[in-house]
Structures are given as structure tokens and as C-alpha cells.
Design brief:
Layout lengths: L1 H40 L8 H14 L8 E5 L2 E7 L6 E8 L2 E9 L7 H15 L5 H13 L7 E5 L5 E6 L6 E6 L7 H5 L13 H11 L1
Antiparallel strand pairs: 1-2, 2-3, 3-4, 4-7, 5-6, 6-7
Length: 222
């Protein structure tokens, strides 16, 4: 009788230990998967700090031979931005729209697009796409851009593409001024695009923004 009780006791202990091990293994596997997902997503711009995105911009721009200036902070229409001029084109900037310490979208804005600068603009777009997702290669970025252009509307001249990385890329061209905007964000909501359209750039030696932009920039530095 005693031996039977001991056998039941040891069997119960054995089953308890197995159960605990299974739970630990399950938790370990889940933590491993979460860590892997986190590591995988670090290539996406919105999962990184502003400092990291600016660092990536500098790195990719050097690799892609797109000369940019330093990023400056400003507040425009109650929204937070960092922007940098593209030295190779006086009427072009890159900008980050952010909330807290994370960027919600990144932009390329060119004052005017025409047949003479299509190649230059494509290179600047490719650069931005590679900043938005560091795993995207040059050829893949050009395919993304080509797909968006193929979907442009005849009247509105705008198009969107939500890619496999869950980033929404888009183009908007003003039919009257030929102003060009390319953006990358995590959703198809274009509400933030309207503010970037108000950025006005002067061509005076390609070094100065307009009075309003400079005024806002100076306020933030005080």
C-alpha cells in the first residue's frame, strides 16, 4: 500500500515537472519569437529614433550619392519636423514628420518636376525608400517607384502603394505648379501630407528657406 502511494506521489511530481518545463519552453519560444520580430523590424524607419533615422539618411545618401545638408528642427502648423536641403537640387528637401521621439512619415519635396530632372528625382526617391526600409535594395526601390507612377490618376496625379513591409508609399504632383512630393508612412491616411505642401523654398543661392520657415526654425532654437 505504501509503495503504491509512493508511486502515485512520484508520478504526480514527475507530471508537475514536465508541465513546468513545457510552460518554460513555451515562454522561451515566445520571447525568442518576439525578440526576432523586434530585430526584424528595426530596418523600418518608424521603429527607430529620430537620431537613428537621420543617421540612416546620412549613410544612405552617401551611398546613393545624394548630397544633403544637416537636418534642422522646426514646428510648422503645429506639427513637428526635421528637414534637410538636398544640395544637388536647390528646390528640394527631405523632411521627417514626428510625434514624440518617433517619426510617423518621411517626405521628399521638389519645387518643380519636369522632363529634365526626372532621373535626379528618381534617385532621390530611391534614397528615401531605402531609408524607410534598410533592407530594400536599389533595384527593388526603383520597382516600387515605377509601380506607384503607373497608378497615377490622370487628373489628381497622385498614387499610393502599400508594400509588403506595411509601409505606404505615395506620390503627389500638383498639376498647376508641377510641385512633386513623395512620402513613406505606416498607413494610407494622407492627413499629414497637407502640411508639407505648404513648405515654400526660395532659390536664393539654394541656401535659404522662406521667411516663415526660418522664423519658425529660430523660435525652436531659443
Amino acid at each position: 500500500m505504501l509503495n503504491k502511494r509512493m508511486a502515485v506521489f512520484f508520478l504526480s511530481c514527475f507530471l508537475f515537472i514536465i508541465s513546468c518545463n513545457e510552460k518554460e519552453n513555451g515562454a522561451g519560444k515566445k520571447n525568442s519569437e518576439n525578440l526576432q520580430n523586434k530585430t526584424t523590424q528595426e530596418n523600418i524607419f518608424s521603429n527607430n529614433s529620430i537620431e537613428k533615422i537621420i543617421e540612416t539618411f546620412s549613410k544612405k545618401s552617401r551611398e546613393n550619392r545624394v548630397r544633403i545638408g544637416n537636418f534642422d528642427k522646426l514646428v510648422y502648423e503645429n506639427k513637428n519636423y526635421y528637414y534637410a536641403r538636398i544640395n544637388s537640387k536647390n528646390d528640394a528637401i527631405y523632411a521627417l514628420d514626428y510625434s514624440g521621439i518617433s517619426a510617423t512619415s518621411i517626405f521628399l519635396k521638389v519645387g518643380k518636376v519636369d522632363g529634365a530632372n526626372l532621373g535626379i528625382i528618381e534617385n532621390m526617391v530611391v534614397n528615401l525608400i531605402q531609408v524607410s526600409d534598410e533592407k530594400i535594395k536599389d533595384s527593388e526601390a526603383r520597382v516600387i517607384y515605377a509601380k506607384i507612377l503607373s497608378n497615377l490618376g490622370e487628373k489628381e496625379l497622385s498614387g499610393l502603394l502599400t508594400y509588403a513591409n506595411k509601409i505606404t508609399y505615395g506620390v503627389r504632383i500638383d498639376p498647376e505648379t508641377s510641385e512633386f512630393i513623395f512620402f513613406a508612412k505606416e498607413s494610407e491616411n494622407e492627413n499629414n501630407i497637407t502640411s508639407i505642401q505648404q513648405f515654400k523654398l526660395e532659390n536664393e543661392e539654394g541656401k535659404k528657406a522662406n521667411f516663415e520657415l526660418l522664423a519658425n526654425s529660430k523660435k525652436n532654437k531659443k
